[in-house]
Amino acid sequence: MDKIILDVDTGVDDALAILMAVESGQLEIAGITAVNGNVPLEQVMVNSKKVLQLAGRSDIPVYRGAGQPLLKGAFHEFGVHGDDGIGGSLQNIVPRVEDPVLFAPDFMIEQAKKFPGELTLIMVGPLTNLALALRKEPTLPQLVKQVVVMGGLVSESGRGNTLPTSEFNIFADAEAAKIVFHSGMPIKLVSLDVTMKTFLTKEHIEQLQGSLYYDFVMKSTEVYRKYSMDNYGQNGCALHDPLTVGVVLDPSLVKTAKYFVDIETKSELSYGQTICDFLHLWKKEPNIEVCLAVDADRFTTLFLDTLKKQL
Fold first, then answer.
1. CA nearest 265: which of 183, 149, 186, 163?
2. What does pTM read for this prediction?
3. CATH number of 2-310
């Protein structure tokens, strides 16, 4: 059973990723770490605890992390996730658990040292917490088993979701992403190139009828599905963050290859762009295992079957 920390900025797909991780039965979740991103940090804390409470897993601690990016101002995605980040759902749940005192980056360091070579970091928000942990503990890359990152856009420039060249998680703190990508950590990148192919439709959600999560998934995705309809002509939402959990559960869901990848932090036109040197023009050693293709249907089935366990 993989020991993980799940780092989130809990909007809708983060919430679905938490549920998938919890219900998989295959992951030992040491804790959830919260970071500013889709919504402000305090809302991330509330949302994460609400989702865990819905799943009956309030025993999993949620650690408060970075409340703002390393250098730039905070950037949020209310238009995709709703004013509260989870589409106005779970209004009847009041979190009951007090927050741990330990700062999220310190928790990452603590767990990596406690379980050297065993810990997987699943990063589905901006990479601020991990960048701070790396700055404090330079040996961290040698201590973790792997880092699986949802972020970036490597082969379809112009189809970003923040700038034409850029994906939200990287754009929200590109300086942090650059630190992480150059850290020497064993990183697998789950980018928009594959996550946009994993689309949860309204018809898919109907398959959850009778389960504990049907009402939540239907309600929480309303704003997200409207955004997708307006922009892509489809009544559904991409399963960005759940796929990142899925890649840990079953690596065979994706095809990967190693390349040198860097992050643009200076250009106004392409801040946050994830640049992959497919042709090895820079003559640098590969630093990222990039997901290039996904078995989307098999993943969507896995996601639905995992949440149906509560039927």
1. 163
2. 0.97
3. 3.90.245.10
